[in-house]
Amino acid sequence: MSGRFLRLACTAAVAAQAVLAPVSAVAAPPAPGPERPVAELLTDLQQRYRQAEQATETYNATEERLERQRAEVDRLDGELARSRLSLHSSRDEAGRLARQQYQSVTGISPYVRLLLARDPQHALDEGHVIGQLARERAETVGRLADDEKRQTELARKARKALDTRLALAASQKKQRDEVQGRLSEVERLLASLTPAQLIALASLERTGTADAQRALTTSGALSATTPPPSQEGDRAVRYAVRQLGKPYQWGAQGPTSYDCSGLTSQAWDHAGTPIPRTSQQQWADLPHVPLNQLRPGDLVVYFPEATHVALYLGDGKVVQAPRPGAKIKVSPIAANPILGAVRPDPRSRPLGRYTPPTIPKTATEGPDESFGTPQPTVPTPT
To answer: Which of 259, 335, 256, 255 is nearest to 302 (CA)?
Structure first.
């Protein structure tokens, strides 16, 4: 087995170890025995990669929720701090007014004081001041009660938000370990295969992709012509094309590596139209569009669980981050089972004139499927 294939086969494990804690218990490698049929091996690998990708999307969704929860905890902590300052100020003000009123009050009725006063106008003015102090004190006491109630409620919300954040962090760790475990299963299976099996698997994948692409284009489900993108779609396409050749890494959103939905979400974020982080959220939240109306920048979503996504380039091609061990590349749209497509900017008008970005010749090299095995290099005899 060549050194190039070993590097490809181990990419996922190396990337995972860079950011993950080790899993304490892992499944044993396949037991030795008769050579398994290639189709059976491919089915096994497809299932394992799909499980890993689904776990990755679940992890990504939890990561996004955790980021929002961190922001909510910070917001509530800041609001609680301001509420405490307001409560402290209200208490000081209430005490000051109480002292002033106490110092101004005598045992003589205001009416008697007015009758006995040498300067009735002065007495009237003094009574007005006392009344004003009483009203201010009442208002301050009311504000004090409101501040105390608000602080109690904010403290309750802050505790609840922190509990939610801790629960999400624990869930994230569990999902992170699951992704690592799934990828480790794939790596062990790859390591157990012979060079002949690897070559046969790669050939079977290429044949499957070519057949699926041919069937899609001849069925008429995909338009023979590509309409121009919107201005935002053009920016998203050009951003994605600039990432060609960068490695897939699960959970990554750039700028040096991406997973499938990390690439699509960042492309549209840089286009000025933020979209959900995960492929499942993109499929659930964005407007759907028929395949025969696809324009560059639209997102093509794959598998029944919506666990993979790519960005449409036009002419039946997509740019995608396929899977661990692969790099961002240009692939046939039918490289994976299509669930449907979505459009992040349905209200944007298409450009009057459109010149697609230049695609390097090397952009189509490497595996297209989001599951399976890296394409091996035929070993050089020694």
So the answer is: 335
